[in-house]
Amino acid sequence: ERTLGRDRLAAMEPRLREHAARELDPLVLAGSGDISRQFGTTYPAFVAAEWLNLPETKVYELANVASVWVDAWRRLDVEMVTSKSNEMYAMARELVAERKESPRDPLNDPASSLLAVEFDGRNLDEELIVGALRQSLVVGLVAPPLIIGAVAVHLSRDPGLHARLRREPALIPAALEEFLRLYTPYRGFSRTAAEDFEIHGRTIIPGEPVTLVYASANRDEEVFSDPDTFVLARPNIGRHLAFGAGPHRCLGMSLARLSLRIAVEELVARTVRIELAGEIEPTRMPELGPQSVPVVLIPA
Questions:
Q1: Residue 150, pLDDT above cutoff 90
Q2: Residues 6+ apart with CB under 8 A from 157
Q3: Where are the beta strands (DSSP E) in the chain?
Q4: CA gap 154, 295 in Å, rounded
Q5: By 3-state DSSP, what share of the chain in percent is helix, strand and coil, each rounded to 5?
Q6: What does the alpha-carbon distance between residue 110 and residue 4 come to, in Å, rounded to a whole number?
Q7: Exposed/middle/buried for 9, CB within 10 Å: 0-12, 13-18, 19+?
Q8: Which residue in 296, 249, 241, 244 sits closest to 273, CA to CA?
C-alpha cells in the first residue's frame, strides 16, 4: 500500500498517459479494432509494469500470458490455466530474485517493500511475497479490459455523453465513478464470518461463508435512485462497491482510478464518435463485462 501513495502516483501519471496514447494510437489510426482485447489488454500491462518497475521488454509478454490465462480460465481449460499461471509465478519469482540482489526504495517498489517487511520479528516467507506479486499481476490485468470495453460500449450508445466529456474533460472523474458503479468488473467475492453478525433479521455465525454480490449492490434501488441509468455526479456515488469496502477494499484502487481516468480521457480526446462494429462477447464467471468489443473509432 505504501507504494501507492499520492506522490508516487503523481510521478507515474505522465508515463501512464504516454502509454495510453501510444497503445490507443493504432486503433485510432486504423479506425477500428477490438478495444478490450487490444488497448484494454496492453495498456494495463504497462500500468502494472510502471508500478512494479518491470522492464518494458516484459510488458507484451505479460499482457499475452495474462490474456491467455484469463481466456483459458473462462473456458475451463485446466491445462492452459496451470501453464500460464506457472509463467506468472515465474515472472514474480524472477522479480523477487532481482530485488533481493539489487533492492530499490521500498516506497517506490512493491517487491522491495514486501522484502523489507518484518512480522513478529522476521521477514515474510518468500513464497508469500511471490504469491502477492503474482496476484497483483492477475488483478491488474483481468478487470481493466472489461471496464474499458464497457465504457466504450456505453459511449457508443450515448454519443451526447461522449461529446460532453470531450467539451468538459473535468467531468471525467465523476463519469468514471458512475461507469464503475454500473459496470463493476467483479460480480463479487466470498468471505467467511469471523463473529456473529445480524443483518435483515438473519444472524450469520462464525465460519459461515457469505457471498457479497457487488454488481447487484451497485444497482440496489434502495441505495441508488433509477439504478440502471447513468447519472453524472450522483450525490451518493461514493457508496458504490466497485472496489469493495472496509478492510477488504482494493488496495490498488487509487492506481486503478488514475489509470482508468487517463484511459477515458485519451479515448474521448482522440475520438468524436465510437460505433460498435460487431458482436460484443461477454465474459464468464467470476467477472462481469465485455471481453471483446469490436469498434469503429471516428478520430478527432
A1: yes
A2: none
A3: 32-34, 118-119, 122-123, 189-192, 197-199, 202-204, 209-212, 271-276, 281-282, 290-292, 294-299
A4: 12
A5: 60, 15, 30
A6: 9
A7: middle
A8: 296
* Cα gap 140→220, rounded to integer Å: 27
Question: How far apart (Å, rounded) are the C-alpha atoms in residues 151 and 298?
Answer: 16
In this structure, which amino acid lies at residue 263? Answer: A
Distance between CA atoms of residues 199 and 259, nearest Å: 36
Grid cell locating 14:
505522465
Region 247-274: what's the mean pLDDT? 95
What is the identity of the amino acid at 35?
Answer: I
How far is Cα 294 from Cα 149, in angstroms, rounded to an integer? 9
State how far the alpha carbon of 202 is from the alpha carbons of 69, 121, 196, 197, 221, in Å: 39, 42, 10, 8, 21
Which amino acid, residue 242? A
Q: Decide if 67 contacts 48 (C-beta within 8 A).
A: no
The answer to whether the predicted template modeling score (pTM) of the entire model surpasses 0.70 is yes
Closest to 114 (Cα-Cα) out of 94, 99, 135, 98: 99
* Cα–Cα distances in angstroms (integers) from residue 192 to residues 210, 216, 248, in the given order: 6, 19, 12
Cell of 247: 478492510
| Non-local CB neighbours of 103 within 8 Å, separated by 6+ positions | 109, 112, 115, 116
210-250: pLDDT as tens digits: 988 999 999 999 999 999 999 999 999 999 999 988 888 88
Distance, CA of 235 to CA of 226 (rounded, Å): 13
N- to C-terminal Cα distance for the chain? 38
Q: Give the DSSP letter of residue 195.
A: S
Q: Name beta bridge partners: 211.
A: 190
C-alpha R_g of the chain: 20
d(CA 150, CA 67): 17
Q: How far apart are CA 283 and CA 293, in angstroms?
A: 11
Look up residue 36 and give its amino acid.
S
